[in-house]
Q: What sequence folds into this?
């Protein structure tokens, strides 16, 4: 296992992100669990310092991150389990649920507080 230090460069960020992707869903009893926790902290700290989140509503933030990762609505539906609900949420017809916020925060690496901001629905 690599000995991780604070992330200072884009290359280190990319390397840490790749490793995090490999192990992000390990169980607590896994030998990689503490490595995953450490990487999440190091990556978050680097991103907080180097990437400012644009002032957009939670749905736009989800769409931006989907584009960043090359995800389609079907990918979100696969994680969440309901294609119709994903469509409604992405089209501002239904609000994000707490469960969606948890899933999308982890999947798209968006801080949960960015997904809990108020936004207007299209009620038409």
A:
């Amino acid at each position: 296992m690599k000995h991780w230090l604070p992330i200072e460069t884009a290359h280190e960020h990319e390397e840490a992100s790749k490793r995090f992707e490999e192990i992000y869903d390990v169980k607590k009893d896994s030998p990689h669990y503490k490595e995953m926790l450490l990487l999440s902290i190091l990556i978050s700290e680097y991103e907080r310092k180097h990437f400012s989140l644009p002032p957009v509503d939670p749905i736009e933030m989800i769409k931006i991150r989907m584009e960043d990762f090359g995800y389609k609505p079907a990918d979100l539906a696969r994680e969440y389990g309901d294609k119709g609900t994903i469509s409604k949420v992405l089209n501002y017809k239904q609000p994000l649920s707490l469960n969606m916020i948890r899933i999308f925060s982890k999947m798209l690496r968006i801080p949960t507080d960015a997904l809990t901001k108020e936004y207007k629905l299209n009620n038409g």
The chain has a mean pLDDT of 89. The domain at 58-115 is CATH 1.10.260 (434 Repressor (Amino-terminal Domain)). The two ends are 54 Å apart (CA to CA).
